[in-house]
Specification:
binds zinc ion; mainly beta; 2 strands
Amino acid sequence: MICVRCDQGIRPGEPYDSHIHHGASGPGTTNYSHKQCPKRPRRPAPEPANRPEPAPDRRP
Ligand SMILES: [Zn+2]
């Protein structure tokens, strides 16, 4: 099963919701989604460059 929300597979044992879409004609489709989608960082957030703060310009 593939979760329609996060496009990740729903593993056996994982809680999921099933959404049944009844077709106007013919069989409907059933979508599945995690009850709680795993948070997957699609791409790791870039670490903010740890550059030192510029020294405050202290004028006398
Ligand atoms: Zn999901």
